[in-house]
Amino acid sequence: MRYFVVFFLLLLSSVASAQENKPTETVTGIILNDNNQRPVGNVNVININKVRGTTSDDKGRFEIVASVNDTLHFSLLGFVSIRVRVTNDWIKSGTSTIKITEKAIALQEVVIRPYNLTGYLEVDAKLIPTRENYRYSISGLTHGYEAGEYSPGAFGRVLGSIFNPTDMLYNIFGKKPRELRRLKEMKKDDTVRNLLESKFDRETIAVLLGVTKNEIAEILARCNYSESFVKTANDLQIMDAISECYEEYKILKK
């Protein structure tokens, strides 16, 4: 019986080791427009599991490091984003054809209304909305950004999230440690950083962290970032803000 237990433990250990060290391959593919079957260039391709990215060339071709069961996220402005799982036959054949669909966008009328100023400084100063926001700095970025109105209870809200199991920060940060650890990995890949720096739709961050866009806004609000920052910052700035908040959360949690 003793030998059987030892053998069983060795078997489990070898299986676990094999799963951790499963081979990493490089897969290639061609991205086509589903409507006209033409190649699509500059498509952003991100391996969600490995947090590595690339873009397709002008012939729609791309190459990225991936393993079986990894998920690739394809996105391009004006097209519907899709996710594709890497399969054994893709690994064996070495290439695959991915088709993406254009979005149907209906433009709405935009009306611009100027402020009705009187010309008297004391009166006009009261008509123009102003907000006293504090500025903050983010690692790796050269400019300061608005951080929201000063609130004496800001620290208390973050601290309270640790002791209140129903709090939104606790629920997200506590249940997604693996996804949040990817924040550091995102900074290492230049393609991912450049993509996030050029985007403002929060889609890529939501996919990589496994949260919704609404949850991203709620996280930043709980971490005392202003509404103006949440609306105007690019995805790279949003990622760094969430990373800072998560690091503070870990310190307080200890």
Strand-helix topology:
Blueprint: H1 2-20, E1 25-33, E2 44-47, E3 52-55, E4 61-66, E5 71-75, E6 82-85, H2 88-93, E7 95-100, H3 121-127, E8 135-137, E9 144-146, H4 154-163, H5 168-175, H6 177-188, H7 190-198, H8 203-209, H9 213-222, H10 227-232, H11 235-253
Helix pairs in contact: 7-11
Q: Can you give a write-up of this model?
A:
This protein is of the alpha+beta class and 254 residues long. Helix content is 44%, strand content 17%. The protein has helices at 2-20, 88-93, 121-127, 154-163, 168-175, 177-188, 190-198, 203-209, 213-222, 227-232, 235-253, and strands at residues 25-33, 44-47, 52-55, 61-66, 71-75, 82-85, 95-100, 135-137, 144-146. The strands form 3 sheets. It has a 4-stranded antiparallel sheet, covered by helices on one side. Strands 4-1-7 form a 3-stranded mixed sheet. α7 packs across α11. The longest helix is centred in the first third of the chain and has 19 residues, at 2-20. The chain is flat and about 75 Å long.
